[in-house]
Design goal:
Blueprint lengths: L2 H36 L19 H10 L2
């Protein structure tokens, strides 16, 4: 292995280390930023009640009509 190859490999390793640190920092800011924006618990009231399970929407009704079901 020539000296140039070893230098290139070292530069690549340093780049990858910096990339990993930057990714971790970005994730920490993203998670922390969400918590700061959320506000205190109890203040947030959902606009609509969460619907669970199957429910027929206008989009689904249109599909059924076109499919002949």
């Amino acid at each position: 292995m020539s000296r140039k190859s070893r230098v290139d490999a070292g530069e690549r390793r340093n780049f990858l280390k910096k990339l990993a640190v930057a990714g971790g920092a970005t994730a920490a800011v993203a998670v922390g930023g969400r918590a700061a924006v959320a506000g205190p618990p109890g203040e947030c009231v959902p606009a609509k009640a969460e619907r669970r399970g199957y429910h027929e929407t206008p989009h689904i009704r249109t599909y059924y009509e076109k499919a002949g079901l």
